[in-house]
Design goal:
Layout (H helix, E strand, L loop, with lengths): L6 H27 L2 H23 L2 H24 L4 H18 L2 H7 L1
Length: about 120
């Protein structure tokens, strides 16, 4: 029997699911607004995000890897903003903090036991 899902993993999965939902909603509105390209991309990204979040709930290590890659890319992009764009420091710091916390929560000892 696999380990029980830790609270941190549940929290990251819920946030990922909500993120997917909040990507789909503007995509649906964009369908009616006439921006078809944006609508399709937003809906697809939202559906993929929800699919990955469901994998986190189930303990899919593949889903954890996808989320890890996305978090690392978010951190890298935010670090770029810190050093390359004037006035973006605090926004970038928050954009680094949340994915970093997510990474920590996905790789605790309890999370590792859940995903193994």
């Amino acid at each position: 029997m696999s380990a029980a899902r830790p609270f941190g993993v549940t929290l990251v999965a819920i946030l990922a699911w909500l993120t997917g939902l909040f990507q789909i909603i503007p995509g649906v509105f964009a369908l009616f607004g006439g921006d078809l390209t944006y609508a399709i991309v937003a809906i697809i990204v939202g559906l993929v995000t929800i699919f990955v979040s469901l994998g986190l709930f189930r303990g899919s290590n593949g889903a954890r890897i996808v989320v890890t890659i996305v978090f690392v890319l978010n951190i890298a992009a935010s670090l770029y903003v810190v050093f390359a764009i004037d006035g973006g420091f605090w926004t970038a710091i928050w954009s680094i903090l949340f994915p970093a916390i997510g990474l920590i929560l996905l790789y605790t000892a309890k999370a590792n036991a859940f995903f193994s």
